[in-house]
Amino acid sequence: MKSLIIRGILMSAALLSANAFAVELETDAQKLGYIIGMDIGASLQQQGGELDLDALIEAIRATYNNQPLAMTPEEAASVREAFIATRRAEAEQQRQSMAAINAAEGDKFLLENRSKEGVQVTDSGLQYKVVVMGDGAKPNATDKVTVHYRGTLLNGEEFDSSYSRNQPTSFQLDQVIAGWTEGVAMMPVGSKFMFYIPPNLAYGPNGGGPIGPNSTLIFEVELLGIE
User: Fold this and answer.
1) Residue 67: alpha-carbon gap to chain centroid
2) CA-CA distance, 227 to 224, in Å (whole number)?
3) Are 205 and 177 in contact (CB under 8 A)?
4) 109 carries an active-site annotation
5) Degrees (nearest 5) of the Cα angle 109, 110, 112?
6) Is 159 a catalytic residue?
7) In terms of Cα–Cα distance, which of 184, 213, 210, 188 is closest to 199?
8) pLDDT score recorded for residue 2
9) Phi and psi of 208, rounded to 5°?
10) How far apart are CA 64 and CA 83, in angstroms?
């Protein structure tokens, strides 16, 4: 966080001096400073946030010239920690709100989906549908399997697919989400199933990567082999 604030300070100075640099980019030092400002600006723009430019520039000058600062290191640390705590609280509130929305949408979907033709429900709440039933062996939870798969959110957005990469993937069956461990173990080699996985059998209230908290997931899985 400290490095982000420093980068923000430098970026603000570069922005305020943009017109001057546009005319005075003659020396290597000026050009290098401008380039660094461009990099910092791009990073700061992605992060967002509001900063007082006058305060930033004054801090740059005072720090660079070893002049007295308006804040002690202890005061700065306290403000920084408060800022971080606020941002974390806001992020947690947003996560909880999204988790509640996703959970409600998932419950509604699973309630409707379970009554559709061909959909079966296990004791854990995993829903599945047989698309193609193979005639090979079924894997154990400790087996390494090779599959093709496609994963989507309830809105149809694809978040992962071995088909898109044109490359099957292999993994040990007890080292993936619980919905996969249970579901793939029911598949004979050569099968293709659809899985409808509630969040408690997927990534739960925290989510992961492109998968939001409490997301219900849909997978198309084709079991190619057991290693």
Assistant:
1) 42
2) 10
3) no
4) no
5) 70
6) yes
7) 213
8) 46
9) 180, 125
10) 24
Catalytic option among 128, 149, 193, 195: 149
203 classed as catalytic: yes
Nearest to 179 by CA among 206, 208, 219: 219
pLDDT in tens, 155-206: 999 999 999 999 999 999 999 999 999 999 999 999 999 999 999 999 999 9
Note the pLDDT of residue 129.
98
Convert the pLDDT of each residue in 27-56 to its tens digit: 988 888 788 778 877 776 776 667 676 777
Active site residue 226: no
Element (DSSP H or E) covering residue 213: none
Tokens 């419950």, located at residue: 107
Cα(166)–Cα(45) distance, integer angstroms: 36
Residue 160 catalytic?
yes
- Which one from 203, 211, 218, 226 is the annotated catalytic residue? 203
Could you tell me the two tokens for 211?
A: 């998968």
| Count of alpha carbons within 13 angstroms of residue 49, beta-carbon side | 20
Asked if the model's pLDDT at residue 114 lies above 80, the reply is yes
